[in-house]
Write a structure and sequence with these properties.
The chain is built from seven helices and seven strands; from the N terminus they run E-H-E-E-E-H-E-E-H-H-E-H-H-H. It has about 200 residues and is α/β, with parallel strands linked by helices. It has a single domain, classed as Peptidyl-tRNA hydrolase (Rossmann fold). Helix 2 packs parallel to helix 3 (about 110-120) and helix 6 (about 160-180) packs antiparallel against helix 7. It is globular.
Length: about 200
């Protein structure tokens, strides 16, 4: 089984914000591949999905972004998953809006949701003789904040111009998740890291 996590903040006031790009990508996957409805578990909302022959669990942590690791680590432990079976979808202000970047590991890059997951997976990583950073992630570009403070920018809604780009980006992100599950990390990186936004 694979665990696919989308990061964001719960609540209607955050639904259309840049920090919720991960939630939006998972909602797209849920429509295409989900089985049933979202259910509360592991400090989040979960939904089983089928992608090809693989059993998949979709997870949206409801802990707020900075504590995302609490939800992810609990699900990883409960389902006895390895770090190689985890994929996290997250927003990234270092990428142009709509750009995708897939990696098999890496740093948080200052993203507090990723940092929380890395910290919370430390014990699991020790068991596997790995680092808490050794899990796949798909970053969805939301543009740099410019002169707007970062904390303000990510909690604001996408601009009309960004929305036009985001729709296609969410589709590509969902396809990238399917590729990672069905074909593996390297094919997903080769196919979607070269993808251009817009």
């Amino acid at each position: 089984m694979k665990l696919v996590v989308g990061l964001g903040n719960p609540g209607k006031e955050y639904a259309a914000t840049r920090h919720n790009a991960g939630f939006m990508a998972l909602d797209r996957l849920a429509v295409e591949c989900g089985q049933g409805s979202w259910q509360s578990a592991h400090h989040g909302l979960i939904m089983p999905a089928a992608i090809g022959s693989e059993r998949v669990l979709l997870l949206k942590p409801m802990t707020y972004m900075n504590l995302s690791g609490k939800s992810v680590a609990e699900a990883v432990r409960y389902f006895r998953l390895t770090l190689a079976e985890l994929l996290v979808v997250v927003d990234d202000v270092a990428l142009p809006c709509g750009g995708l970047r897939i990696r098999g590991a890496g740093t948080s890059g200052g993203h507090r949701g990723l940092a929380s997951i890395e910290s919370s997976l430390a014990a699991q990583a020790v068991k596997e003789e790995k680092s808490g950073r050794d899990f796949a992630r798909i970053r969805i570009g939301v543009d740099p904040p410019g002169r707007v403070p970062l904390e303000t920018y990510v909690l604001e809604s996408f601009s009309p111009a960004q929305w036009k780009i985001l729709e296609a980006a969410l589709h590509r992100a969902a396809e990238a998740v399917k590729c990672w599950i069905g074909e593996g990390l390297v094919p997903a990186m080769n196919r979607y890291n070269a993808d251009e936004p817009g």
